[in-house]
Amino acid sequence: MLRLMIHWHSKPAVCVACALAGVAGLIVAAAWSLAARPGTASAQLAAADAATPASVGELRGVWSGYRVEPDWETAMQNLRQANFNAVFPYVCSPGVAYYASEVLPVSKYAQDHDYLNEAVTAGRKYGIAVHARIIALELLFAADATKTAMEQAGRLMVNASGDALPWLCPSDSRNRRLLKQVVVELARNYNIEGLQFDYLRYPWKDCCVCQRCRAQFAADTGMHIDDWPADVTTEGALSEEFSTWRQQQLTDLLEELVAAAHTTRPDILISAAVFPRWQVHAENFGQCAQTWVERGLLDFVCPMNYTADRLDFATWFLRQRKAVAGCTPLIVGTGPFSDACQFAGPQQLVEQIEIARAFGAAGFIVFKYNEQFAEQYLPYLAQEATAQATRPAWAE
Ligand SMILES: [Zn+2]
């Protein structure tokens, strides 16, 4: 079984291997194609079925809410018993925090509990790393008053219909500053192993066309705009330039956030939860995971490969593996409880874990930790698929 050499770099810098990715990618693609002729994902799946799954040197994680039932102590104990080693709890959006934030409104549900601190304390007890997951741009679960204040301040995204959306416009320096403050306080105040950026994207192609973005786009590109936003939305004369510019906005934002995190905690790990089909999703949502990888911004990348179809799961992963070209570890997201699909049972998760292992993933993350996962999936996994304890390859 062909495996990629994965190397890992912890600071944003131009990666030499990435610079060679064009050549390396061709070599890998050619070798893979030769090794798996006729080269289809289904043929490779058949080969994967025959492979012996690896079970050492991998990240085994779960995404979760800010709190879990019945409490973090029990959840961490359950995860430890099944030899998982990482948790990615949702800790805030730019409109509400579930930890003791000094820069965001703290949720009424978290006034008496610092859930992140509870997770970190229990995680250390049971050897489970905590990566705080930040909803980067959507004002998810924010109070109406917070959304209204942001709208009145002109800080929200605007779509082609002229509607303000509950998403922060990334071109606004006030929004970038707020997100950097969040990153800094999380890195400084909590003994977390990492930060994960989620929802680091636009909601759709026609965002953001606020007047600030118009001015910034014109200044950055030197393009003459006759009709805004028609020129930059679908099939407009400048739609390609606008698509590229949007991707650049998010990449620049990520770069700023990574720098802020590393200035505070040089050893903190940075990751991102990203959509699965990188090329089309870069155009639709401005989320250019390939560029983030090529720029060395991430310590690992987590595509949310939420599907119950094992061929889709394998196909997406193979494309992602080719895209990362050995520069960044791939931790594959699998979604037995996602909106996109529901699994029939834990055996379906085991199948996807085995595919990920056979194709060279550096680990997997399950969406998400809940009571059913704890009661039905974890004990099943612990019998075989995760029977042996392990740590991520970079921590070995
Ligand atoms: Zn804007």
Question: What order do the helices and strands come in, and which of them pair?
Answer:
Blueprint: H1 16-19, H2 21-35, H3 41-50, E1 59-64, H4 72-81, E2 86-93, E3 96-97, H5 115-126, E4 129-135, H6 144-152, E5 156-158, E6 164-168, H7 173-189, E7 194-198, H8 211-221, H9 239-264, E8 269-274, H10 278-285, H11 289-294, E9 300-303, H12 310-324, E10 331-334, H13 346-358, E11 363-367, H14 371-383
Parallel strand pairs: 1-2, 1-11, 2-4, 4-7, 7-8, 8-9, 10-11
Antiparallel strand pairs: 2-3, 5-6
Task: Describe the model.
With 396 residues, this protein is an alpha/beta fold. The chain has a single domain, classed as Glycosidases (TIM Barrel, Alpha-Beta Barrel). It is 43% helix and 14% strand. The protein contains 14 helices and 11 strands. The strands form 2 sheets. Strands 1, 2, 3, 4, 7, 8, 9, 10 and 11 form a 9-stranded mixed β-sheet that branches. A hairpin with a 2-residue loop joins β2 and β3. The N terminus is likely disordered. The structure holds zinc ion. The site of zinc ion has 7 residues, from α8.
